[in-house]
Amino acid sequence: MLLNLLNTIRSHFFSMAVLATLYFGWLHRDDNYLSAETGTGYLLGIVGGSLMLTLLLYPLSKRIALLSRLIPIRYWFGIHMFLGVVGPVMVLFHSNFQMGSTNSNIALFSMLLVAGSGVIGRYIYTHIHHGLYGTRVTLKELKQKTEDEHAELLKLYASDEKLNSLLEGMEEKALRPYTSLTKSIIHVIYLAINSHRAKSKVLRVLKKSHMEDSEDKILPDKKVVAQLVKHYTLALRQTAAFKVYERLFSLWHILHLPLFFMMIITAIIHIFAVHMY
Questions:
Q1: Pairwise CA distance, residues 222 & 110, whole Å
Q2: 100 — alpha (psi -120 to 50), left (phi > 0) or beta?
Q3: What is the mean pLDDT of residues 137-165?
Q4: Where are the alpha helices (DSSP H) in the chain?
Q5: Residue 118 burial by CB count (10 A; 0-12/13-18/19+): exposed, middle or buried?
Q6: In 39-59, which positions are buried (b, 16+ CB within 10 angstroms) versus exposed (e)?
Q7: What is the pLDDT of residues 6-58, one digit of tens each?
Q8: Are the C-beta atoms of 99 and 60 separated by less than 8 Å?
Q9: Domain chopping of the chain, boundaries
Q10: CA–CA separation, 263 and 257 (whole Å)
Q11: What integer pLDDT is reported at residue 30 of this predicted model?
Q12: Phi, then psi, of 59 in degrees rounded to 5
């Protein structure tokens, strides 16, 4: 838990540092302090391009045993994430945040497309793993979490039949099989929008149960119940969304690799054109 928190803080700090660096570069793009053809600007292009080429080491580490023995795959993933940000930032400073020749523009936009794709992939990845560097989440694990929250609510309210019926109905609707990706995305969005109403509905049933049983027993604290209901509806949404994120990640993976190779090809053409002409 503490390790995940530290990783999250480090990730946020790194993101803020990158955004501040990009903002600085954008503000001073007209100062002509860097040239793509010579000096530091040229060096940034070479180093940035080389770093992006080394991104291939991560997928290769999954297939070449020697690489995974030298460095565990989870660390290759961290290197991949780090270089996937630092490389494009260097190239942007190399270009001085400005447009150039046709071939350089194509290479630049290809790189930005891959970088944007990486950001989307990172977002999807965190929804099917325990954080960036954690293990993969399983559907069984999420369903168990939903069942545990369900059982905890019933435990507080002595297996109230109305409550159990309501929770089972919500789970049936939320966890129904998806017929298509489009419908499943719409369904997950609906669940997110409807989550507040679902919480209110559960709390109304609990309030009614409270009024009926108040003379017979001591009932739990309202804040505790509200927090438990919140956890329950969140677990329900996470379970419903899991298959969607799995499918999206699979599709993203199919798209990301061709984009990466397109970037490499356009970069090679750009380098060849610059040095030939």
A1: 54
A2: beta
A3: 77
A4: 2-27, 39-53, 57-61, 65-70, 73-94, 102-125, 139-156, 161-174, 181-213, 222-276
A5: buried
A6: eebeebbeebbebbbebeebe
A7: 667 777 888 899 999 999 999 988 887 888 888 888 999 999 999 998 998 99
A8: no
A9: 2-136+251-276, 139-241
A10: 10
A11: 83
A12: -65, -30
Instruction: Report how far residue 54's alpha carbon sits from residue 244's, in angstroms, rounded to the nearest whole number.
Output: 31
In 3D space, the residue among 86, 87, 81 whose CA is nearest the CA of residue 133 turns out to be 81
* Tens-place pLDDT, residues 48-93: 999 998 998 998 888 888 888 888 888 888 889 899 999 999 999 9
Contacts for 203 with CB less than 8 Å, ≥ 6 apart: 225, 226, 229
Distance CA 97, CA 89 (A): 10
Q: Which residue is listed with tokens 């936009």?
A: 109
Q: How far apart are the first and last CA of the chain?
A: 56
Smallest Cα–Cα separation from 125: which of 239, 233, 19, 242?
Answer: 242
Query: Distance of alpha carbon 2 from its chain centroid, rounded?
Result: 20
The amino acid present at 24, given as its one-letter code, is F
What average pLDDT does the structure give for the chain?
A: 82
Q: What is the CA radius of gyration of the chain?
A: 25
Decide: 270 and 117 in contact? Cβ < 8 Å.
no
Q: Please tell me the pTM assigned to this model.
A: 0.78
**pLDDT tens per residue across span 180-192:** 888 888 888 888 8
Q: What is the pLDDT of residues 223-269, one digit of tens each?
A: 777 777 788 888 888 888 888 898 899 899 899 989 999 999 998 89
